[in-house]
Amino acid sequence: MLTRFTRKAMNIIRNIPEGKVLTYGRAAVLAGKPNGARQISRLLHSMSEKYDLPWHRVINSKGKISLKPSQGYELQKALLESEGIRFSKNDTIDLRLYLWQVSFFNTP
DNA sequence: CCACTGACTACTT
DNA sequence: CAAGTAGCCAGTG
Fold this sequence. Notes:
The protein has 108 residues and is mainly alpha-helical. It has helices at 4-14, 24-30, 37-47, 73-82, 95-98, and strands spanning 22-23, 58-59. The chain starts with a helix and ends in a 10-residue tail after the last helix. It binds a DNA duplex (13 and 13 nucleotides) through helix 2, helix 3 and strand 2.
């Protein structure tokens, strides 16, 4: 049984457009739980495949990929770059350019 | 119900 | 800037 928060979060993540990203924290806020960032990561980890979520479009608040090398890092970076996202020298994504700007999201 | 775990974050050193 | 810390809360056993 999934919580309302979890379902809402999945819905939001599914709607991240190509070439844009969301941070764990932002996704949590949009799903209605400002402190639910860790649940977002759990979601992605456990059901990104089952529910066909664009898990690679979610990164941490510093604009970096949270996965470790050989644990999915390379794959995520490749997927993002294939959508046109450019990484800075220090391997960070410029959130000013790529953060999905959504002021409201309507899902009951 | 309790304990433990995290692909997190904001704040302090 | 890097490293440490306290708070966070759904899932799991």
